[in-house]
TrEMBL record:
The lineage of its organism: Bacteria, Bacillati, Chloroflexota, Anaerolineae, Anaerolineales. One of its GO terms (molecular function) is S-adenosylmethionine-dependent methyltransferase activity. Keywords: Methyltransferase, Transferase. Residues 46-136 form the Methyltransferase type domain. This is Class I SAM-dependent methyltransferase. It comes from the Bacteria. Pfam families: Methyltransf_11. InterPro entries: Methyltransf_11, SAM-dependent_MTases_sf. It comes from Candidatus Desulfolinea nitratireducens. GO terms for biological process: methylation.
């Protein structure tokens, strides 16, 4: 599968709304809050897998921002929502940056697409400066409600998800890259419906309320198994 323009009109992107207050908007807002809370403002920040640039564009006022994506078409679109960000085409497994060059790195729902995610995480450890911060998210194989979805679970719906792993494996890779997890949590149960006989809207209100509240207040509190993604904030060891 090529991560070209067609990718952004299929699979998990096909139902995304870029409108303000959409789920996509709230997600970007939440990750921006994490970057500002855990990262040092004014430091160099890199988003890997920056897509169409909405998250990195939101962070330009607070950080010296760079973006990297394998999809050159998406980077071209990013120019519409970024002003000062340094845009780069490249792979997470071979990062074109010097050692210890970033104070914050965000890699949101990228590692599951990689043939060698362990190499990519090792690269993250290389480019993050001492006391720098990693923010990583990927599908959560330990989600409590995943068994209710079976083969229809969101993590299985994108055929480019070739590196789905349990949280323990991701955490082991992160620690092996000289990064110490500070916060490990989840994003809530938003992959409705989970129960076929109950209207999806009711399930969204019931199952998704905690994840929605977490996104609104910007404070990570959901236990690891209480959501469809594992989210890790880790610090580079000195």
């Amino acid at each position: 599968m090529s991560f070209d323009e067609n990718y952004f009109s299929t699979h998990t992107y096909e139902n995304i709304s870029f409108a303000k207050y959409s789920m996509y908007w709230w997600s970007n807002r939440f990750y921006a809050i994490l970057a500002r809370r855990y990262g040092k403002r004014g430091s160099r920040l890199l988003e890997i897998g920056s897509g169409m640039g909405h998250l990195i564009g939101d962070l330009e006022a607070d950080f010296d921002t760079s973006a990297l994506d394998v999809n050159h078409w998406a980077l071209v679109q990013s120019r519409e929502v970024t002003d000062t960000t340094d845009l780069n085409t490249g792979s997470a497994e071979r990062l074109p940056f010097a050692d210890a060059s970033f104070g914050v790195v965000i890699i949101k729902h990228v590692v599951e697409h990689l043939r060698d995610p362990e190499l990519a995480i090792s690269e993250l450890g290389r480019i993050i400066a001492p006391n720098g911060i990693l923010i990583l998210a990927t599908p959560n194989l330990d989600s409590l409600l995943k068994p209710l979805k079976g083969d229809a679970w969101i993590g299985y719906q994108d055929p480019t998800h070739i590196a789905l792993k349990p949280p323990a494996e991701w955490l082991s890779m992160i620690r092996s890259a000289d990064l110490s997890p500070l916060k490990v949590f989840s994003d809530g149960f938003w992959d409705v419906p989970y129960i076929s006989i109950i209207p999806a809207m009711l399930q969204k209100l019931f199952f998704g309320s905690l994840g929605g509240f977490q996104a609104i207040v910007g404070i990570p509190f959901l236990p690891l198994r209480w959501g469809e993604s594992i989210i890790v904030v880790a610090e580079k060891k000195v």
